[in-house]
Specification:
The complex is a heterodimer of chains A (210) and B (205). With 210 residues, chain A is of the alpha/beta class. Chain A has 3 domains: 1-136, Beta Polymerase, domain 2 (2-Layer Sandwich); 141-173, no CATH class; 174-210, no CATH class. Chain A has helices at 12-19, 43-52, 115-126, 163-172, 195-204; strands at residues 24-30, 33-38, 60-67, 76-84, 89-97, 104-106, 129-131. In chain A, strand 3 (60-67) and strand 4 (76-84) form a beta hairpin. Residues 206-210 of chain A have low confidence and may be disordered. Chain B is α/β, with parallel strands linked by helices. Chain B has a domain at 38-163: Rossmann fold. Chain B is built from 6 helices and 4 strands, in the order αβαβαβαβαα. Chain B has helices at residues 26-35, 47-56, 91-100, 111-116, 146-161, 185-191, and strands at 40-44, 79-83, 106-110, 137-139. In chain B, strand 3, helix 4 and strand 4 form a beta-alpha-beta unit. In chain B, helix 1 packs antiparallel against helix 5 (146-161) and helix 2 packs across helix 5. Chain B is globular and about 70 Å long. Chain B starts with 25 loop residues before the first helix and ends in a 14-residue tail after the last helix. Classes of the chains: A alpha/beta (210), B alpha/beta (205). The A-B interface holds A 141-142, 147, 150, 153-159, 162-175, 178 and B 88-89, 91-93, 95-96, 121-124, 126-127, 131-132, 176, 179-182, 185-186, 188-189, 192, 194, 201, 203-205.
Chain lengths: 210, 205
C-alpha cells in the first residue's frame, strides 16, 4: 500500500501486529505518516497499550477528529493523532464505523483527559457517540441546536431549517446555557448565589431553555 | 467643532451681541451634543475588529469625533458597532446587549459579514445583523478600512443631527416579538436568499 517515496512504516506497527493481531486491520504510509486502521471494538485497548507500553510511550493525544467521504459507501472514520513527547514519534490511528450501525466508539477520556473537548467536538459535528465520556454534549453549536450534525455529508450547507426558523431558534437560546457550573467556576458558591441566579444557572446547566 | 449660532429669522436683527448668552434650538443643541459624544459599544467578532482597533488607535484617532471612550458596558453605550461576522450562537448575545443599551442608541453594521453574512452563507451564520437588531449605518468592505468606518460614523453623526426630540418614533424600542423574531419571518427569508457566488453552492445542498 505504501508508495516508494512515502517513507518508512513506523516501528510501532510491528509491535501492534505482534500484540493485537486481530485488532489491526491494515497499516498504510501516507505522506510520511503511518496510519493504522483498528477494529472499532478494540480501539480503546490498543490506544491504552500505546500510551502505557514502555516501548511506545505515546503520552500526548494531539487530536481526535472524524472523516466522512463523499462516497456514500465508505464508512466514517474516527482519527486519533498520537505523539510521544519522549520518543519524538507520531502515529495516526483510525477506525471505520459503518453508517448502518450505531456510530459508537469507546471514549479515551480515561487515558488522556484532553480527549474531553475533542470528543465533544466530534460528537457535535458528526454525531459519533463516545461510550464512557463523562459529559458528552455539544460544544461548538449551542445545546438546543436541533438541525443535526453539520459536518455530515447529508447535512445541507445552509442547514435544514429556513433562515427565519434558524433565527427564531437562535434568539430563543439561553446564552448562559453553554456553560456548566464547573466551567463558570462558581460551582462551589452555588448555595450562596441569589435564588434568581441559582435558578437561572440550574436551568442552563444542561442547556434546557425554559 | 464649536457651537455655531443658527441663522436667525429674517427681520430679527441683533445689533449688539452680549457675550453672556446665546439663543439656539433645543434640537440643535441636543443633537450637537449627542452626535459629538458617541460612546461605542465595540462588538468585535472577527477581522473587522482589527480595523476597528486601528480606527481607535493613534493613526486614525476616533477620539477626534468624540468617541474617546469605548464603553464596555452596554448600559453606558450610545452606538453598538458590530465589527465582524455574527454566528447564530451569538445572536441572543448581541440582542441582549442591544436591549441593555439605554435610549438614545444607534448601531453600525461594520463589514460585509455583519451586513449580509458575506461569504459565510452557511448553517452557522446570521445573514445580516438587521435580522436581529435595528441597524442605522452599514459600512461595506471586507474588512472596511479605518477611513471607511470613520465615514460611516460621520454618516451616523449626520443622521443624528437631523433627528428631532419631538419624534417619539425614533426612540421606540424594537423588541423581539411574540413569534420570537425581531423581523417578520418572510422578510428574514427574503434577505437571506443566496446571492453572488453562493447561488452556485451545490455541495450536498
Amino acid at each position: 500500500m505504501s508508495g516508494a517515496d512515502d517513507g518508512p512504516v513506523s516501528p510501532s506497527v510491528a509491535g501492534l501486529r505482534a500484540r493485537f493481531a486481530g485488532a489491526v486491520r491494515r497499516a498504510v504510509v501516507s505522506c510520511g505518516d503511518t496510519v493504522v486502521y483498528l477494529e472499532p471494538t478494540r480501539a480503546h485497548e490498543v490506544l491504552a497499550w500505546l500510551r502505557d507500553d514502555p516501548s511506545q510511550q505515546f503520552d500526548y493525544l494531539m487530536d481526535i477528529t472524524a472523516v466522512e467521504y463523499r462516497d456514500e459507501e465508505r464508512p466514517l472514520e474516527v482519527v486519533w493523532q498520537l505523539r510521544s513527547l519522549s520518543r519524538r514519534q507520531d502515529l495516526r490511528l483510525k477506525t471505520e464505523l459503518a453508517k448502518d450501525a450505531p456510530l459508537e466508539v469507546d471514549s479515551v477520556y480515561d487515558l488522556w483527559k484532553g480527549a474531553d473537548w475533542l470528543e465533544r467536538e466530534v460528537f457535535d459535528m458528526f454525531g459519533i457517540t463516545f461510550r464512557g465520556h463523562p459529559d458528552l454534549r455539544r460544544i461548538l453549536m449551542w445545546e438546543t441546536y436541533g438541525e443535526g450534525f453539520p459536518l455530515r455529508k447529508s447535512f445541507p450547507l445552509r442547514g435544514h431549517f429556513n433562515r427565519a426558523e434558524q433565527t427564531r431558534q437562535a434568539l430563543a437560546a439561553n446564552p448562559e446555557a453553554h456553560y456548566s457550573l464547573e466551567e463558570l467556576s462558581i460551582a462551589a458558591a452555588y448555595a450562596e448565589l441569589p435564588p434568581e441566579m441559582a435558578q437561572r444557572l440550574a436551568r442552563g446547566q444542561r442547556g434546557e431553555v425554559a | 467643532m464649536g457651537l455655531s449660532l443658527p441663522v436667525g429669522d429674517a427681520g430679527t436683527e441683533v445689533s449688539t451681541m452680549s457675550p453672556n448668552w446665546v439663543t439656539t434650538r433645543l434640537d440643535f443643541l441636543a443633537n450637537w451634543a449627542r452626535s459629538n459624544s458617541l460612546w461605542p459599544m465595540p462588538f468585535g467578532t472577527a477581522c473587522c475588529a482589527i480595523e476597528f482597533m486601528a480606527t481607535a488607535a493613534s493613526r486614525f484617532d476616533l477620539a477626534r469625533f468624540g468617541m474617546e471612550r469605548m464603553s464596555y458596558s452596554p448600559r453606558q453605550a450610545d452606538v453598538l458597532i458590530c465589527a465582524g461576522r455574527l454566528p447564530f450562537k451569538l445572536a441572543p448575545v448581541i440582542r441582549r446587549i442591544w436591549d441593555q443599551m439605554p435610549q438614545p442608541k444607534w448601531s453600525i453594521s461594520m463589514g460585509a459579514c455583519a451586513s449580509s453574512g458575506g461569504i459565510f452563507d452557511t448553517y452557522a451564520m446570521v445573514q445580516g445583523i438587521d435580522t436581529i437588531i435595528p441597524v442605522d449605518v452599514y459600512v461595506p468592505g471586507c474588512p472596511p478600512r479605518p477611513e471607511g468606518l470613520i465615514y460611516g460614523i460621520n454618516l451616523l453623526q449626520k443622521k443624528i443631527k437631523g433627528e428631532s426630540l419631538l419624534d417619539a418614533d425614533l426612540r421606540q424600542e424594537h423588541l423581539v416579538g411574540p413569534d420570537g423574531l425581531f423581523q417578520p419571518a418572510r422578510h428574514i427569508d427574503e434577505v437571506s436568499e443566496p446571492f453572488g457566488n453562493s447561488v452556485h453552492q451545490t455541495r450536498s445542498s
